[in-house]
């Protein structure tokens, strides 16, 4: 680390290199923080979390009880121990509350004044954050499993919605009406995700085992259907041909540069795809336990030398390297199944929600201070000359530091 700082000060190194190295160190040292709590409001399992991208300060949660809670993550007391307080909530007594389980919440990508939520009550609701009232609502014929707004769109305000119907619905926030539908799946759509690189490209995952990429400007819509065998049909059964998973696809997440797409399925597999060619990169993550019958919310780190995937794995969270598939660690702290997790890129923090009604904060461990006696011992060694260090084989003459 000192070498990186020195190189940065001398102008010999890219300013981002130090930041990426420190971000990686912080992610690798994530631990359950005993000094930070998130106020417990939900009376049943927590299905979804989202942190707004503008300040990275406010977090939304949605529960199986239909309740939505807005939290302030900032430490206003400046104390060592503090609780992330709930600023407000859409509780059971609220006139616009969802009747059934909230499956997805998402902040409007460019402004904290609005957020969206979707529920098993067959609705997608648009909320005014300041008044905490529903500004608009879209009604569907089937259960709503997932929805997503593009984080980079400047020319449209479309919300993609996955429901019990095999048709993907697109809702236009500007007009307040349905825009059009995308047809191609055979069963319910459990997960949807807009590309963070191209505002018109959408990925969808279905219970039919297929993942499709769409360009919503095209009449036909579908760009490609991802194939786990990369077109080698001789190695695949007729049922598995042209499918991404042999089970239900219930999780999608793009890498932050939009170049790759990570998918999870109930076949206990996770796969990484080239989002341009549609090729399965064949990264082996091993068995990834996935017993969820609905959408699974996982996340990917941002700004590290190696990007990491945080995936609910029973009552734990598995941390994988995205491009090598290595299982780095298992984060343990919840009592029952974890349903969702969200990454805070500014401080490399992770928040997770579970059926145990708790939201846990995973914070990078602080570097432990060097004890005084160790510092004194190191000081006593300093009088050795560099030439003497080399004499005893402690250094390399070609590279001192």
UniProtKB/TrEMBL annotation:
- Name the predominant localization: nucleus
Pathway field: Protein modification; protein ubiquitination
Give the top-rank taxon of the lineage listed in the UniProt record for this protein.
Eukaryota
Keywords attached to this Swiss-Prot or TrEMBL record, sorted alphabetically, are: Chromosome, DNA damage, DNA repair, Nucleus, Phosphoprotein, Repeat, Ubl conjugation pathway, WD repeat
Presence of keyword DNA repair: yes
Q: What cellular-component terms does GO give this entry?
A: chromosome; Cul4A-RING E3 ubiquitin ligase complex; nuclear matrix; nucleotide-excision repair complex
WD repeats, residue ranges: 95-137, 182-224, 242-283, 331-362
Q: Which SUPFAM superfamilies match?
A: WD40 repeat-like (SSF50978)
Q: Can you say what this protein is called?
A: DNA excision repair protein ERCC-8
Could you tell me which species this protein originates from?
Amazona collaria
């Amino acid at each position: 680390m000192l070498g990186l700082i020195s190189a940065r000060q001398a102008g010999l190194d890219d300013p981002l290199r130090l930041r990426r190295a420190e971000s990686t160190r912080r992610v690798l040292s994530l631990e359950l923080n005993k000094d930070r709590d998130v106020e417990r409001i939900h009376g049943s399992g927590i299905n979804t979390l989202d942190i707004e991208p503008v300040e990275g300060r406010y977090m939304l949660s949605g529960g199986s009880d239909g309740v939505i809670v807005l939290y302030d993550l900032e430490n206003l007391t400046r104390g060592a121990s503090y609780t992330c307080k709930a600023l407000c909530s859409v509780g059971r007594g609220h006139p616009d509350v969802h009747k059934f389980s909230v499956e997805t919440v998402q902040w409007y990508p460019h402004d904290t004044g609005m957020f969206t939520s979707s529920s098993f009550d067959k609705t997608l609701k648009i909320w005014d954050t300041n008044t905490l009232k529903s500004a608009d609502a879209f009604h569907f014929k089937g259960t709503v499993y997932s929805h997503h707004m593009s984080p980079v769109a400047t020319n449209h305000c479309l919300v993609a919605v996955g429901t019990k119907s095999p048709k993907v619905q697109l809702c236009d926030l500007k007009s307040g009406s349905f825009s059009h539908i995308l047809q191609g799946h055979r069963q319910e759509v459990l997960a949807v995700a807009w590309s963070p690189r191209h505002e018109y490209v959408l990925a969808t995952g279905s219970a039919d085992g297929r993942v499709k990429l769409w360009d919503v400007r095209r009449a036909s819509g579908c760009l490609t259907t991802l194939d786990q065998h990369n077109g080698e049909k001789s190695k695949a059964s007729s049922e598995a041909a042209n499918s991404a998973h042999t089970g239900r696809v219930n999780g999608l997440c793009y890498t932050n540069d939009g170049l790759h797409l990570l998918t999870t399925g109930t076949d206990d597999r996770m796969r990484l795809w080239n989002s341009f060619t549609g090729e399965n990169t064949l990264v082996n993550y091993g068995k990834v336990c996935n017993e969820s019958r609905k959408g699974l919310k996982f996340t990917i780190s941002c700004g590290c030398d190696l990007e990491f995937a945080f995936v609910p794995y029973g009552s734990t969270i598995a941390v994988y390297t995205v491009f090598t598939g290595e299982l780095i660690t298992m984060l343990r702290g919840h009592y029952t199944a974890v349903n969702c997790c969200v990454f805070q890129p500014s401080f490399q923090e992770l928040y997770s929600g579970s059926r145990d009604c708790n939201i846990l904060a995973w914070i990078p461990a602080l570097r432990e201070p060097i004890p005084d006696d160790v510092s004194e011992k190191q000081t006593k060694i300093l009088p050795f000359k560099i030439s003497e260090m080399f004499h005893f084989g402690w250094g390399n003459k070609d590279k001192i530091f």
